[in-house]
């Protein structure tokens, strides 16, 4: 036995293989079942990612999203057999990589394998339904590689090239995640093998080859790379104002305490690691740590709901990634990681014994059998479709009215396309809630008004999401729905709109008003055949802009509509204030009841927009 232990300690290869085997066993033992496709906002865009991949739509022209051609791999849902199989394998590998990283870091920090295995097991169990973001995994790996480069005696170029390929794949999965991976793994590559520009050249070579291979393999032409990057950047830049939200049930103040306590420990660890490092290593370490902490803070506290679980998990793991000079400090880092893991569980608002329900090895085996059993996959897909149809409950007359024509589903329920087998032809930003910039809004509106736009739109009259007014989401798109489409069928909350010749006249200026405080503003009536629109101009101060960039705005612009179905105000991204926002619609324009309540207003008031100006305009709408 002693001889085996000595051989294990002496051989780096045997240790690595043993730790990989342990990580695989842990992930299988704590396996959380792949979620079934369902109706709703988040499940719908996840289903859409699978459909886009299966139908080989072009990113940057057909669709625009922060997730890229490989985005579906993070969501192993049984939407299509092929995309599910790929996502299942990638999810498994990502979880193994994270657990392996935690085991290795804990063993290095404490000097013992047993607490390392326990830490890996707890981390895998905590992951539960959390998405393993490749960018954050890349950043954690980069911290380890900067402090302990994996210098190979032979083929030293392989490490830097592999890091470049990994960063490129992260970019193809999600833009912001890919940017983090590119910066962090690029810095880590500098210290692998031959340092300096040579290593960066090898990193760049692996990056370019992997990106182009992945882009072309998913059916995207090279000509659309620029447009995808540009439009995705707009979505990322608009996220802070568009998705800012605080869930009172999940957002207690102790989240900030845990975050900044972990941040302080990370700073102390970085300073301690600084002492024995070269200047370039110290600089790289600080850049990676600073970037990870900032990105995670934005991720967890811009939208302060269950998103914060991933932030607390990552911040808890950061101290473990540092090389501590004393064992007892390594144990303190492990204790900090434990606090982060417990905080992540609490932030998910889940009872770990009742709600996580890991299926373990038996559940993993069931899903693994689906990889080779196509009949089992098809049965599962059929069952999931039937479950979504029961939830949506769309009347058959509505589906018949859509027929086989290309259709876009508004405002967000893409799950209907998959569940009912519709011919999906979306506008580029296929969920209006996520249209956070004026450029994205114009892109959608222009597509609707062109010959390439969807001839049929299936629209659901939904309750407001995160206090957003449905008529203020993608305002130009809403105007295009009135001008370029007519309702042909309405049953319950679902309606079918078909393209028609543009029936709106030119804009006619009605009046303008300067806003002071939250005083009510009278909305001019216009003529009986006119819809009334508003353009709001408001320029926040420098402090507001800086706080929005670093963290999130102190307050979102809001519009109060006293005659609406709710007396609460509606939040709206600053970039969409210029609208034009639909306030009144002629009585003979048919709208679902919920939207009609929001389209016949007499007054409005602006909140958190002191000094703004409002211009009212009218456009005639032919019946």
What's this, in brief?
This protein is an alpha+beta fold and 623 residues long. It has helices at 2-10, 12-29, 41-55, 81-110, 113-127, 134-147, 157-173, 175-190, 197-217, 225-243, 254-274, 279-301, 308-321, 327-347, 360-372, 374-392, 396-402, 415-420, 438-449, 475-484, 542-550, 593-596, and strands spanning 245-246, 303-304, 407-410, 456-460, 485-491, 494-499, 504-514, 521-522, 530-537, 558-560, 570-571, 581-584, 603-607, 613-621. The strands form four sheets. It has a four-stranded mixed β-sheet. Strands 7-14-9-12 form a four-stranded antiparallel β-sheet, covered by helices on one side. A four-stranded antiparallel β-sheet has the order 8-13-10-11, with no helix packed on it.
Describe the structure.
This protein is α+β, with helices and mostly antiparallel strands. 53% of the residues lie in helices and 11% in strands. The protein has 22 helices and 14 strands. It has helices spanning 2-10, 12-29, 41-55, 81-110, 113-127, 134-147, 157-173, 175-190, 197-217, 225-243, 254-274, 279-301, 308-321, 327-347, 360-372, 374-392, 396-402, 415-420, 438-449, 475-484, 542-550, 593-596, and strands spanning 245-246, 303-304, 407-410, 456-460, 485-491, 494-499, 504-514, 521-522, 530-537, 558-560, 570-571, 581-584, 603-607, 613-621. A four-stranded mixed sheet has the order 3-4-6-5. Strands 7-14-9-12 form a four-stranded antiparallel sheet, with helices on one face. Strands 8-13-10-11 form a four-stranded antiparallel sheet, with no helix packed on it. A hairpin with a 2-residue loop joins strand 5 (485-491) and strand 6. Helix 2 (12-29) crosses helix 4 (81-110). It is globular.
